[in-house]
Structures are given as C-alpha cells and as structure tokens.
C-alpha cells in the first residue's frame, strides 16, 4: 500500500465506524417504529373479568402442587424423554450429513424449508398418517431439528480455521480431509450444541401433548383447562426438574444407554397403512378444484377465496403479533440484562437474576401463552407477552454474558449513569444482533400460537386439520414457510449490512 493509500485508509477509519454506528441506530429506530405500528393494530383486549382472582387460584396451586393425582404421570414423562432423545439423535445424524455438503445451495434451501415448519405443524400432518404413535412424536421433532442442526453445524464448519486442511496434500481424499482436519476443530462445539438442542427437544416433546400425543403437555393442558392448578403445577415442576438437572445427568458415556432405553420404551415402528400414506400425499393434499377435475380458473378462484378468508388475515395477524413481540422483547432485554451483568449489583442479586432468567427462558413460549390465555382471555396480548418474556430472557442472558468482556475506566460512574452512558451504548449493537438472529424464531413461534386460539396462521391451520381440508393445511403451512424464509433473509441481510454478528447456536 502506498503512503497516499495508507493515509486515505487511516483517514477513512473513523467515518466508517461512525457510518456503521449510524446504520444500526437507524435500523433500531425503524424496527421500533414497525413494532409500535404493529402494537397499534394488535388486539390487546383483556377479556377476563377478574384475572386477578384467577391468578390467585393459580398461585395457590403452585404453592401446593399435587404429584399423586395425575394418572400415568411417569409414563408421560418417559414418553416425553423418549421422543426427545430419538428425535434429537435422528436430527443430529441427518443434520450432520447435510452440513458436510453445506456449500450446496439446494441443501441450504432444503434445510431452511424444513426448519421453517414448527414441530407442532409437522405433528398435525404426521398424525393423519401415523396417528398417535412414536413415529409421529419422533419425526415431528427430527424433521425441523435436522434443518436446524444442518445450519448450525454447517456454519461451525465454515467458520473453522482452514489452515489444517490447507496444509494437507492436495491429493488427499475429501472425506479424509474432513474427518482429520476439519471435524476435530469443531467437535466440541458440535457436542455442546447437541446438548442444548436436546434441551429444546424435551420442551418440544412436552408441547406435542397439546395435539394429543401422550407427553407431559397433554396432562398439563388438561389440568389447567379444568382449573386443577395443583396438578398442573406438579407437572410443570417435574418438567423444570428435568431441564434444570440436564447438566448433571447428561453424560457423554451415558448417551448410548439413554438412547437405547428411549428406543426400547417407545419403539419408532410405523403401524399405519401404506395406502393411507399414499392417499394422503396423492389425494388429500391436492387442491380441491383439481381433485374434482377443475382447471386453472377453478384453482385460481379457490386460491382467491382462501387468500381473502384465511391466508391474508393469518399472515397479517402473524406479522403484527411477531413485530409487537419483537419490540417488547428488545425493551425487556434492555431492562433485564443488568440482572446478571458483573457490572451491576452484587453476587446475591446476580444469582437471583440468573435464576429468574433461567425460569423465563426455560418455560416454552407455548406454555406461557397458554397460561396467559387462561388469565387474560383470547387476544394477541397473551401471545405477545409469552414471546417477549421467553425471548427477552434469552437475549438478556446473552447480552449479560457479553457485558462480561467490557472493561470500564477507573472513574466510571455507578448506578443509572453507568447503565445509560457507559454500558448501554457498548452492548446495544450486540443486543440488536441477538434480536435480529431471534426474529425468525419469534415469527415461527408466532404462527404456531394459533393452535391455542390466537388468530395467527396456526389458527387456520388447526381449523383446516379439524375439518379434514388438508389441501388448505398444506397451502397455509407453505405460507408460514415463505413468511419465515422472508424474515430470515431480511434479518440476515440487516446483520450483514450492519456488520453485526452475535455468534452461532442461538
């Protein structure tokens, strides 16, 4: 580089930084505006006349849980773990295979498509073919998780140091180079992420009970709908105990034992009929006009009717709820991350804050939305609160961990001034990156909340399944896929433009 070029580069350094900072400020501003507009259109009505009294009854149930009144409690727990173990193992295997060829565009597109469909939607489809069986529970987890594993494993491999592979002879076989020069660099990250994904699978397995599978969620929904909050609290405490103790009972040497036990307890055998599967794929999923011998005109009229009555309302409500939840998530993250940051409070307050965030981010959004629906009644408010609390706790945890790397000057102020002037400006870009990374997840969960009665795309999907109109189900699920892919592309483009990188595995 010539001296003149060096001077131009040096002189451009600070303007580039300032330009980048102004970009993420503008992005934050417009995302906040979009969230406020969404909240203005959202249905935030509290339909219950006395949510306080219901909350009191629920609190009494949580203070006196009944662990002995739920029939088949331990069987439900075993099913929950069996589905989670088998689904995670299958997903990790196929995700790993896809990650090996992650450079192929079709592989990335396929992985993005299958992970864009929520486990509950996969479960609703599989129920029509395999019924209330192990196959339904395992595949409902394995299919979308395979896409997630493929993405994360593929990105781990892309970011790994390429020097060891480059040092090997060019004549070496690609498979040997992969296993000896690339895989060892990311193997520990693979194992760590596998443990996290198993935790997610246990939550997903429990939620599958809401569509009838015999897991913890089935009994939890029944108990809370009947007002038996002591029974529901016992089920929830048992669920928390499994998740919180995962780090102690999940040992690498015991993984084969757990997996074999899961298969022995719930063998994933397909007990349905092949002709049912063939009919479902070749007849039930075909649009009604084509089944009746109609042409393109009838097909277009069918689509236009469905667009007006279900597709557009579902897409709009999903987008409104998701953007409103994203805004509230950001605000909660800003308020909560100091609870665990070493730059604030003391050891006692940070321990309490850590416990609060663990409970919030461990409780699935679906469970939280279900509880808020009981308290507040059917509207968008339960969904927004549930998504914001769960995701806000995750983002706050990640932001608090990031703040551990900050070093403040010796005369830095304390209290609110430290938060506003010293810490907040330095963590906000990373917090925005975390939010953008989680945006796709928020939209994915927003759609599925419709199964609880909130008028997002999931509401119309659940209704079409109940009416056995599976051609509508397929089109509505494809709409959720397209929406999630669009949000993911927008989020990825914004992160790239703003040079924001939160890290993998969120």
UniProtKB/TrEMBL annotation:
It comes from the Bacteria. The chain crosses the membrane at residues 27-47, 83-102, 123-148, 201-220, 232-250, 315-340, 441-461, 473-491. Keywords: Cell membrane, Membrane, Transmembrane, Transmembrane helix, Transport. It is a multi-pass membrane protein. Gene3D superfamilies: MetI-like. This is Binding-protein-dependent transport system inner membrane protein. Coiled coil: none annotated. It is found in: Cell membrane. The keyword Cell membrane applies. PANTHER family: ABC TRANSPORT SYSTEM PERMEASE PROTEIN P69, PHOSPHONATES TRANSPORT SYSTEM PERMEASE PROTEIN. Signal peptide: none annotated. Residues 77-248 form the ABC transmembrane type-1 domain.
């Amino acid at each position: 580089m010539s001296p003149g070029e060096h001077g131009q580069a040096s002189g451009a350094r600070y303007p580039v930084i300032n330009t980048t900072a102004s970009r993420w400020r503008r992005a934050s501003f417009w995302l906040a505006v979009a969230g406020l507009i969404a909240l203005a259109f959202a249905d935030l009505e509290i339909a219950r006349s006395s949510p306080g009294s219901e909350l009191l009854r629920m609190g009494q149930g949580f203070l006196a849980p009944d662990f002995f009144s739920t029939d088949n409690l331990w069987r439900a727990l075993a099913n929950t773990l069996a589905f989670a173990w088998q689904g995670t193992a299958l997903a990790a295997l196929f995700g790993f295979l896809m990650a090996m060829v992650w450079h192929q565009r079709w592989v990335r597109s396929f992985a993005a498509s299958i992970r864009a469909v929520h486990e509950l939607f996969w479960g609703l489809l599989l129920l029509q073919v395999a019924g209330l069986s192990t196959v339904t529970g395992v595949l409902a987890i394995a299919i979308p998780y395979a896409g997630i594993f493929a993405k994360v494993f593929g990105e781990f491999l892309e970011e790994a140091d390429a020097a060891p592979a480059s040092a090997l002879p060019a004549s070496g076989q690609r498979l040997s180079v992969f296993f000896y020069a690339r895989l060892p660099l990311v193997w520990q990250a693979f194992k760590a992420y596998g443990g996290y994904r198993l935790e997610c699978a246990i939550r997903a397995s429990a939620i599958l009970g809401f569509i009838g599978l015999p897991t913890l969620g089935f009994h939890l929904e029944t108990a809370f709908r009947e007002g038996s909050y002591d029974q529901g609290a016992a089920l929830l405490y048992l669920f928390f105990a499994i998740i919180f103790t995962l780090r102690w009972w999940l040992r690498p040497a015991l993984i084969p034992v757990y997996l074999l036990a899961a298969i022995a307890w719930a063998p994933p055998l397909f007990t349905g009929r092949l002709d049912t599967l063939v009919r479902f794929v070749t007849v039930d999923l075909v649009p009604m006009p084509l089944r009746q011998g109609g042409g393109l005109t009838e097909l277009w009229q069918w689509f236009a009717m469905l667009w007006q009555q279900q597709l557009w309302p579902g897409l709009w409500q999903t987008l409104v709820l998701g953007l409103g939840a994203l805004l509230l998530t950001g605000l909660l993250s800003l308020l909560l991350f100091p609870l665990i940051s070493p730059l604030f409070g003391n050891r006692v307050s940070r321990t309490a804050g850590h416990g609060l965030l663990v409970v919030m981010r461990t409780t699935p959004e679906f469970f939280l939305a279900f509880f808020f629906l009981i308290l507040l009644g059917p509207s968008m408010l339960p969904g927004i609160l549930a998504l914001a609390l769960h995701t806000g706790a995750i983002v706050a945890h990640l932001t608090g961990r990031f703040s551990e790397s900050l070093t403040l000057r010796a005369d830095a102020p304390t209290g609110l001034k430290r938060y506003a002037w010293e810490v907040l400006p330095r963590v906000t870009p990373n917090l925005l990156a975390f939010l953008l990374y989680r945006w796709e997840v928020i939209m994915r969960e927003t759609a599925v909340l419709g199964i609880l009665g909130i008028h997002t795309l999931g509401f119309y999907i659940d209704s079409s399944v109940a009416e056995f109109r599976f051609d509508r189900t397929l089109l509505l699920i494809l709409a959720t896929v397209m929406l999630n892919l669009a949000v993911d592309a927008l989020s990825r483009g914004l992160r790239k433009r703003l040079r924001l990188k939160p890290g993998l595995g969120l």
